[in-house]
TrEMBL record:
Keywords: Pyridoxal phosphate. One of its GO terms (biological process) is polysaccharide biosynthetic process. Belongs to the DegT/DnrJ/EryC1 family. This is dTDP-4-amino-4,6-dideoxygalactose transaminase.
Length: 382
């Protein structure tokens, strides 16, 4: 499950919401342009990785001002996995990751044979705390993987400083953060590589897919090898690789979405500004100085009975919401043995976070209903 998919499908009206249209927590937008692009590829007869993928890679890097090459793959998770392999991460290594994220972050580390080591997030922020990261470093640590969670950049100044001091690589999980930036630097331009997810609920989609920005030609070459069975020249395999290629059908969708994503981001930001101005009784999401937040999620903190709050939003006001993520990764079965210090801010965020609809399809009536609902429930609970 990814952001927006594990809560609130439209189950019709419930008691008290008769006649109210359900406001979903996420809504992918697919237009005639995407349909025509798919049709164009279908008619070409060339469906697998080809010219559409090559063009999408160049256009993506240019669009977000990354100043580096991009490599397209079949999902964000495979992008992270191949990125780590391409940067030399292997069994016996440790990579420091947040526990408060989608499990793909730690999964990608574990899939290389390395160990994910969980560090806490900052108190007023949902991203890795540089001091907690520094405290988690051992002689086996090779890298840090911050997540630009919800579309807000992680504390890259502090994290890059820790990495530099200890000779570590930085790998960015930018799955949720297309277009976000910190002090003018776009996310995706900091680390040895960065992964952007193109899953349908993310800020832009290709159906499924991932785009990986790479810091240098060596990482780029390895990414391209691992993506394609280890082949640069056909049938002259150089390493053990995967088939993690993106299809031209998916790339064609992504290229059309790229033309629209800036408009959607502006709408997300306007929706978020309205919510922050009008919500009361919940803690609205902070934006760090110098940060551009692209609001993949608009996540408030509900200090008391978050689950009851979410249930009432749905049953009394037909407002969908999401919890990203209610179970910290260090408590998931696959990571039960992974090392971690105490993670008090992770536990607190997992108990309090609630993502309200912020997607670009919301009408002003939807936004008004969300504000009315949240403020009434917060007041009743106070
Ligand atoms: C969506 C997501 C991923 C994985 O991307 P997929 O394209 O779904 O494989 C990884 N990390 C985070 C934080 C995500 O939200």
């Amino acid at each position: 499950m990814t952001a927006g998919t594990n809560t609130g499908t439209n189950t019709g009206t419930t008691a008290g919401t008769e006649g109210l249209e359900f406001i979903p927590p996420a809504k992918p937008i697919i237009g005639d342009e995407e349909r025509a692009a798919v049709d164009r590829v279908m008619r070409s007869g060339m469906l697998a990785q080809g010219p559409e993928v090559a063009a999408f890679e160049v256009e993506f890097a240019e669009h977000f001002g990354l100043g580096r090459a991009c490599v397209a793959v079949n999902s964000g998770t495979s992008g992270q996995h191949l990125g780590l392999l391409s940067c030399g991460v292997k069994a016996g290594d440790e990579v420091i990751v947040p526990s408060f994220t989608f499990a793909a972050t730690a999964n990608s580390v574990a899939l290389t044979g390395a160990t994910p080591v969980f560090a806490d997030i900052a108190a007023d922020d949902f991203g890795l705390d540089p001091a907690a990261v520094e405290a988690a470093i051992t002689e086996r640590t090779v890298g840090i993987m911050p997540v630009h969670l919800y579309g807000h950049p992680a504390q890259m100044d502090g994290l890059m400083a820790v990495a530099q001091k200890h000779g570590l690589q930085v790998f960015e999980d930018a799955a949720q953060a297309h277009g976000a930036s910190l002090n003018g630097t776009p996310v995706g331009a900091f680390g040895s590589f960065a992964m952007f997810s193109l899953y349908p609920t993310k800020n832009m989609t290709s159906g499924e897919g991932g785009m990986v920005s790479v810091a240098n030609e060596q990482v780029e070459r390895m990414m391209r090898l691992y993506r394609n069975q280890g082949m640069e020249k056909q049938y002259h395999n150089e390493v053990v690789g995967f088939n993690n290629r993106m299809t031209d059908i998916h790339a064609a969708i992504g290229r059309e979405q790229l033309k629209k994503v800036d408009g959607w981001t502006k709408q997300r930001q306007a929706n978020a500004a309205f919510l922050t101005e009008n919500l009361s009784g919940v803690v609205t999401p902070p934006v760090a100085p110098g940060a551009v937040h692209v609001y993949h999620q608009y996540t408030v903190r509900v200090p008391e009975d978050r689950d009851g709050f979410a249930a009432a939003l749905k049953s009394e006001y037909a407002v969908g919401s999401g919890m990203f993520y209610p179970v910290p990764n260090h408590q998931l079965a696959p990571f039960a043995d992974a090392p971690h210090a105490d993670l008090p801010q992770t536990a607190k965020a997992a108990a309090e976070c609630l993502s309200l609809p912020v997607h670009p399809s919301l009408s002003s009536a939807h936004l008004e209903r969300i504000v009315t609902a949240v403020n009434a429930l917060a007041k009743a609970g106070a």
